[in-house]
Description:
- This protein is of the alpha/beta class.
- The protein has eight helices and six strands, in the order αβααβαβαβααββα.
- It has one domain (about 1-240): Undecaprenyl pyrophosphate synthetase.
- The chain has a six-stranded parallel beta sheet with strand order 3-4-2-1-5-6, with helices on both faces.
- The longest helix is centred in the middle third of the chain and has 24 residues, at about 85-110.
- It is globular and about 55 Å long.
Amino acid sequence: MMDHWAEANRYVARVELSALDRTRMPRHVAVVMDGNGRWAQRRGLPRTEGHAAGEEALMDVIWGASDAGLGWLTVYAFSTENWKRPVDEVRYLMGFNERLLLTRRDEIHARNIRMQFLGRRDWRVPRRILRRIDETLELTRNNTGMVLSMAFNYGGRAELVDAVKSIVEARVPASKINEKTIRAHLYDPSMPDPELVIRTSGELRTSNFLMWEAAYSELVFTDVLWPDFRRGDLFAGIAEFQQRKRRFGGLDGPPSSSASG
């Protein structure tokens, strides 16, 4: 049963943008970028080389998502659990993300993409990284195209803990707390729920990613390791999404559409 379910959710063939139904595009797609380390190890390279190779994948997916007309793209760049990795790898990832912002944000800005960041701004994140984040937010804040949301130092449980703390600090009476209250205290209340979450590398879990927001997301898994992932793989995931029927707890529902879940 599990093998059949997993196989049904692992797409393999890349898809051209022209093959998609442009009237049923998801508004928001989120991606768990996984498999950098395994990609490197299979080639006898250090794990950091896999992260470096993942940059090309990331940029191609960003451009592809923008070309497809997605409203939001969220990528899992660094989790709260990633601090447990070897010190050298964590140090590399901090430098990698800083370099990515410095070298790519002008391109992103030129394409009218607005950048957002989800995650904790705590003592573990170097101050220089926080400065780069703030500079990027300021640079792109008036852009009107796709929103690129980077989940950095992010964890789904951490987000919910922080939301509860914020509600308590605001002294909201228990009788007034509902789903709207919780959403209003998430890292980015304006972000629509992702209709589609894609995970690369063949792992069949969401790994603490957007736990609240992805409650009704369609999940699509691919065996492609992140450095090999390209816009055609993104479009294949969207094509799979377009074949789904979204019920939201009911007995039946319309085929997937751009309506937020």
